[in-house]
């Protein structure tokens, strides 16, 4: 009769180790005792011919584990811990764009300013001193200017997350980032940067000139009619377009990101990330009739390209692509958009200005702020209202004028 191998392994709670019988009859106990300097998990093992001996060795080790741990952990610098945390907890648990962001924050800021401080010695003052330096003058910026409040807050989030993991592992007794003051616009007496939008006549000129460019111009028109982000537009596939229901399914994005798997000199690669910026960003957008007609023309044009190129046409099923069906490069799209704006004789703005312009026109047309918020994929209606206060202020004046006219009618 076969022996039941399940009875030969004793599982315990996380951090308590495990005991098993090996094929040669000996008993072995294993327990994790931290991480190596390169972020790999380190195991402590005990073996003996007798199970009772292994159990005693494991129990003795756990009794003195805090002492052993303190001797090892007290040597870690912030730099060493951040590398361990990045390798162990970040790489395989976040999307590539987030990984790149974390890597940049760790290497360009955290290690630069507090990397040499011992993990157990990091204080609230150390963290706040770093934030103040980053706001005033970042050494990693070629122009010598400080970072924005938003960027420093992103740095804070990464540091807090890394220190929280150290706290949960028992490496530190408290998370100093919990009590460190993070810079705000109000504390620094700074005003929120005004958003860029196109005026109505500028928007009209841009649309007219964009209609002449069947590749990149259509991307611009898409942004002006939906408020979608550049990456979201470039990530659209025809399966996401429902002409019957007149909807657009936003559920992924195209980005040029660092290629961690390359074996060549190539450093970056175009990726379709099957998620969006936030959970709210995954959404369904109603399709305007004008946009529906433009997209149908786009599909017919692609069919012509497919017939001409045959097998050489990339079968990526992209809504916006090169003539050969390959992805449009986000940087090229930005450059072409700015060329179109120049041809239209209007001011130079970021691509994101197209999203702001859509939101402004939508609110001006009396579209409900709640609906606008849903279309844009904002986290809340309040965020939408706070972002587009300039439109709401103008609408309030117009509405007050209507009320004044109405009151004069009924009260006279």
What labels would you give this structure?
412 residues; alpha+beta; DNA polymerase, domain 1; hpI Integrase, Chain A; three-stranded antiparallel β-sheet; 15 helices; 9 strands; 49% helix; globular
Helix content: 40-55%
Q: Assign the structural class, choosing from mainly alpha, mainly beta, alpha/beta, alpha+beta, or little secondary structure.
A: alpha+beta
CATH superfamily grouping of the largest domain:
Intergrase catalytic core
> What is the top-level CATH class of the largest domain?
Mainly Alpha
Structural summary, described in words:
- With 412 residues, the protein is of the alpha+beta class.
- Helices cover 49% and strands 11% of the residues.
- It contains 15 helices and 9 strands.
- The strands form 3 sheets. Strands 1-2-3-4 form a 4-stranded antiparallel sheet, with helices on one face. A 3-stranded antiparallel sheet has the order 5-6-9, with no helix packed on it. A two-stranded antiparallel ribbon has the order 7-8.
- α4 (96-114) packs across α6, α8 (216-226) packs antiparallel against α10 (289-309) and α8 (216-226) packs across α12 (352-364).
- Residues 1-9 have low confidence and may be disordered.
